[in-house]
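Notes from the pairing session

We agreed to fold both candidates in a single pass and log them together. This is the raw record for the first candidate, unedited. Please don't reformat it; downstream parsing expects exactly this layout.

Candidate A
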Amino acid sequence: MRRSKVALAALIWIAVLVVMAGSADLWVPRVLGDPVAIDTTKVVAQSLKSPSFRHPFGTDTLGRDIASRIIYGARVSLVVGVLSVAIMVALGLLLGGLAGYLGGAVDALIMRLADVVYSFPYVLFAIALIAVLGKGFQNVFIAIGLLGWPSIARVFRSSVLGAKGTEYVEAARGLGASWWRILVRHILPNTAGPVIVYGAMSVGGAILAESALSFLGMGVQPPSPSWGGMLSESRSYLFTAPWLMLYPGIALLLTVLAFLLLGDALRDALDVKGKRS
């Protein structure tokens, strides 16, 4: 990781974002202002203020500080990204492990189910699922997690197929170990590299999916700050107040890119596909 300056920069950005979002309650409301509260007596005077020393990223149509809302929006994006990836990894490991190790009808059933999920456009399927579950923060990461497991399942299934015929698995089977113990205690620790890499990259994809859903009004609901929601609110002010779109867009771009670069660096560090020239 230290040999790649790009990966190190990505890791630093993620760390800074986590620290800022985690400690936001301690300093953001006092330094930048409350990201949600609206001062009705100053809305007209504070509305759409351009970037200044008091408001580094300017203010929105209701006079709220953009920088404050971006920091609190980072908390939403990171939590949704991590929790949704945790759901998809858990489901992917379970179903992919069962498909790869048991094979036969179980493998065919799970892979056909994955094909069914793959056949639907991701965002449209997520919108339909949220329409059933209801709008809200919790249902956003549940929907993203439930729709992302097929990729993890395919990656882990491939690793299991390559590992279940190895000597250490045959030895464990000869000693009478159950298929579940073999899968969890022997195969998973030795084949987790590709899953870790794909999981790190998937955090960026989950953050992007949450922003897309919030942009369409199906994600985190106002007044809770969300990068996608902020981009949606800025559409009418693209030329008159470009900072409404610029800074949330940059934050979203850098964060998604950082997780993709981190996943690429982890692939090199874990040497998933062997040494590359």
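Candidate B (folded immediately after A)
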Amino acid sequence: MKKFKKIKSWLLRRICDSPPLPDAPFGNMPHASREKYLSLFEEAKKRVYPEVDALETQMGFAIDKSWLDELALHTQIVIKESALNYQQGRLLYAVLRRYLAASQIAGNGPCVAFETGTARGFSSLCMAKAMIDAGIGGQVVTLDILPHNTPMIWNCIDDYEGRKTRQQLLARWPEELGRVIFIQGWTASQLRKTGLVRVNFAFLDAQHTLDQVMAEYRYVCDRQRRGDIIVFDDVTPGFFGGVVEAVDRIERESLYDIHRVWVSDQRGYAVATRVR
């Protein structure tokens, strides 16, 4: 962990030129009452996802549902038009735990997980929990244009208590939170500054254009070895054509074996495992 404290200090010193952000990216007022968020939560957590169930069985690992649901209540239950779905938490945990169990990373140093598109921090904490539960040292480095220490409305149940920072939003999970390095800025500019030399595992979920996804992929690919993994979010035809096309291109390059996971007709993922 000493090594990662040095990395964290170096990153925070180097990354200081984040672009300006809207004063209130999610607005100035709560989007709904506490009761509304709780009602949405009860509906969301009852839904079943056979594809994710099968993936957990295949991987041999499943995240604690009570832990996941509590985190989702504060970070994934939002007011939006599409159906609420936080199954990426289950997928990321299961795939990362399997990777950690199957690899030799325990004897080769800490794990580095890299994420684009932090949002409220849900996926970052799920990856951090996988490392903790596996007993593996490591850190999650995550990029987003949203600030980490600016109090604001987040379009979540916590808004009825007033503006909070992301740090405050995630304060209920201090051990997992301590494993995450939050970096603010546009991904395209920040990729040139993070200075990571190794990325064992990545979750790419920032801007969904073809060029942006490919740029994130190239960054990660240059820092991976055989057996390492990239998970792509929103690989959903008809919704995110840029992501779909990027994953198709990557599959044709044959550096990664691609396994697609369909959670619903509005949400798909791709798990890419480096094979050479």
